[in-house]
Task: structure prediction
Amino acid sequence: MSEESVMNTKDFFIGALIGGLVGASTAFLVTPKSGREIREGINEQARESTTSLVDKMKDLSRSMRKDMKELTDSADYLIEDFDDLSEDIAASVRQEVEDLQRSVEQLIREVEEREKAKKNGEGRV
Result:
């Protein structure tokens, strides 16, 4: 081998070594956290997200319970209103039936009186 090719090989290895050191130093300086710190950060974010999700689910559950209670209360008020309304309707129907019974009784008396009058009138003839 010639001296020039030995020099090129030597220069290449020196350049590769210096480049590797510069790259490793740059990576070490630029990387904000170690692998362990990154994993811990990811785990912490996962815990926070889980906690946040649980809190949101609890809030949603409370809200749904509140809405269901309001809906139930509204239904109770409607039922009471319908009960009152049905009592009013029942009283009105009862009154109408009583009026109808009195009218029918009156008609029966009138028919009976006419029949009596007819019989009394025929007996005289």
Remarks:
- The chain has a mean pLDDT of 81.
- The chain has one domain: 32-124.
- The two ends are 169 Å apart (CA to CA).
- The first helix runs from residue 3 to 30.
